[in-house]
């Protein structure tokens, strides 16, 4: 359910936050937003969020860094692109949500952040997705009972020949690792 | 006609029947599909949350491999499809990031020039092969089969590539040519929740209930899909939806390539018809008798 707009203490705003999100979301102009609410009206999960996508974008523009990074809005984003397709001002809100998740992951260690973290490390280990490995990593990091919840579906998938017991690997895994290192070096300069 | 095939991780695991049926149908249509040698995960919608640049270069490696092979890419998974297109469109539209992608690719001795086309298998079937040619290959018309087409969200977004981003008709027309009765389905491009099933299961189960609910109300005997995430969420979690919302849905969720193969008279085993969790037996026994 939507919450009231948080009261902001004087001096707690980050004037550079909007610029940062514009850069991290692929060089966008968030001033184009006219607060029409098409994004919120299109999102499947607006009613579950404390702050709808429309309001979150305004909070980004206002520089409410802490409130934005503590919100749950972007953890509900599935990258369905409804908001992006419909935005009359051409803003790619899906990329804005990616940028916010990216920043939140570095300060936040809950289950949402852990999922993306684990996905990234599985990709580096194998070069491909390995569902068992991803689930095991995530469960150990957050909630081991997850494994119990997934057990029955795992068994069904295994019986249908749709669960790989062992990971499939990219042969040239060194290329994936080199790309990761290289990007790391380049990002330090961004 | 021949393509560099990018199966993606799901088609080698949870969506094996999508891989099997795509290969079988393409073989039957005489279209070459050569799997890209040593492809890697595209990063899907998870990687962009960890690093913008890394999420562009990881799919770019696959596109570079396809360029080396000199063929356009055929993709079946909607999520891979949107991810590969995202990398290509940033490369094409943004000189700053293009230079960065080139620099990173250079570190592994590869080059990506974005000249490769990225095509969804539904697009290839409907637009390259064409519905007239498809009609000629139908051996067992799916007469009387009531289905809803569920495209999922990422097949035609964010940009209109080959289908309308909100109301595509490609799968509708294909299924009609196969003889099926295609029912109206207003949720045809609503999101299935994707990977959010892992982190926000309550919210996503409610989405599945809505999607299954409309299919049920329309009288659909099956939902026809084009994405492994949609198929998995609707098929594998149907029991959970029923338990959670006291419903009694029993709706098979089948890939369009499987149904195309059925109409073309391809053997059930080649289409992986036993791999769907909600069994297809009741739906397809009239076409195969006791075999399935």
TrEMBL record, chain A:
SUPFAM superfamilies: alpha-helical ferredoxin
Keyword Cytoplasm among record annotations: no
GO cellular component: plasma membrane
Domain 4Fe-4S ferredoxin-type: start-end pairs: 30-91
Matching InterPro entries: 4Fe4S_Fe-S-bd, 4Fe4S_Fe_S_CS, HdrC_iron-sulfur_subunit, Helical_ferredxn
PROSITE patterns, sorted: 4FE4S_FER_1 (PS00198)
Tagged with keyword Phosphoprotein: no
Swiss-Prot/TrEMBL keywords: Iron, Iron-sulfur, Metal-binding
Molecular functions per Gene Ontology: iron-sulfur cluster binding; metal ion binding
Transmembrane segments: none
Residues spanning the signal sequence: none
PANTHER family xrefs: HETERODISULFIDE REDUCTASE RELATED PROTEIN, IRON-SULFUR-BINDING OXIDOREDUCTASE FADF-RELATED-RELATED
Protein name as it appears in the record: 4Fe-4S ferredoxin-type, iron-sulphur binding domain protein
Annotated organism of origin: Acididesulfobacillus acetoxydans
From TrEMBL, chain B:
Residues spanning the membrane: none
Residues in Cysteine-rich domain copies: 3-85, 150-235
GO MF, any single term: oxidoreductase activity
InterPro entries for the chain: Cys_rich_dom, HdrB/HdrD_reductase
Keywords, alphabetical: Oxidoreductase
Gene3D superfamilies: 1.20.1050.140, 3.40.50.11810
Keyword hit for Oxidoreductase: yes
Domain of life: Bacteria
This protein's name: CoB--CoM heterodisulfide reductase subunit B
Species this protein is from: Acididesulfobacillus acetoxydans
Organism lineage string: Bacteria, Bacillati, Bacillota, Clostridia, Eubacteriales
């Amino acid at each position: 359910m939507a919450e009231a707009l948080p009261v902001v203490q004087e001096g707690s705003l980050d004037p550079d936050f909007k610029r940062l999100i514009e850069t991290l979301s692929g060089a966008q102009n968030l001033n184009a937003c006219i607060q029409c609410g098409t994004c919120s009206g299109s999102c499947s999960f607006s009613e579950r969020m404390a702050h709808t996508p429309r309001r979150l974008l305004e909070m980004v523009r206002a520089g409410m860094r802490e409130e934005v990074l503590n919100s749950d809005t972007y953890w509900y984003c599935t990258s369905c692109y409804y908001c992006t397709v419909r935005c009359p001002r051409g803003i790619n809100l899906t990329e804005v949500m990616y940028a916010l998740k990216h920043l939140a992951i570095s300060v936040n260690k809950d289950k949402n952040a852990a999922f993306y973290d684990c996905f990234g490390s599985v990709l580096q280990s194998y070069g491909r997705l390995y569902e068992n490995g991803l689930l095991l990593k995530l469960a150990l990091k957050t909630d081991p009972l997850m494994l119990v919840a997934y057990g029955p579906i795992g068994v069904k998938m295994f019986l249908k020949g749709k669960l790989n017991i062992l990971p499939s690997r990219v042969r040239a895994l060194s290329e994936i690792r080199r790309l990761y290192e290289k990007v790391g070096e380049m990002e330090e300069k961004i | 006609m021949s393509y560099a095939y990018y199966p993606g991780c799901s088609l080698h695991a949870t969506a094996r029947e999508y891989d099997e049926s795509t290969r079988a149908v393409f073989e039957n249509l005489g279209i070459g599909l050569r799997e890209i040698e040593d492809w890697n995960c595209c990063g899907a919608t998870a990687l962009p949350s960890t690093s913008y640049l890394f999420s562009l270069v990881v799919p770019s490696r696959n596109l570079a491999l396809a360029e080396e092979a000199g063929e356009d890419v055929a993709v079946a998974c909607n999520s891979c499809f949107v991810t590969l297109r995202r990398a290509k469109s940033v490369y094409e539209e943004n000189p700053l990031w293009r230079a960065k992608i080139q620099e990173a690719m250079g570190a592994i001795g590869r080059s990506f020039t974005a000249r490769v086309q990225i095509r969804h298998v539904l697009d290839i079937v409907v637009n390259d092969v064409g519905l007239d040619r498809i009609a000629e290959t139908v051996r067992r018309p799916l007469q009387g089969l009531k289905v809803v087409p569920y495209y999922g969200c990422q097949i035609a977004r964010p940009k209109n590539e080959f289908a309308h981003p909100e109301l595509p008709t490609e799968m509708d027309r294909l299924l009609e040519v196969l003889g099926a009765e295609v029912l109206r389905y207003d949720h045809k491009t609503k999101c299935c929740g994707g990977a959010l099933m892992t982190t926000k299961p309550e919210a996503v189960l409610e989405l599945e209930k809505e999607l299954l609910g409309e299919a049920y109300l329309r009288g659909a005997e099956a939902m026809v899909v084009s994405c492994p995430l949609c198929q998995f969420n609707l098929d594998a979690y149907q029991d959970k939806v029923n338990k959670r919302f006291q419903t009694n849905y029993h709706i098979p969720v089948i890939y369009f390539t499987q149904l195309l193969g059925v109409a073309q008279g391809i053997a059930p085993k080649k289409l992986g018809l036993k791999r769907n969790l909600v069994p297809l037996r009741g739906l397809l026994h009239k076409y195969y008798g006791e075999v399935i």
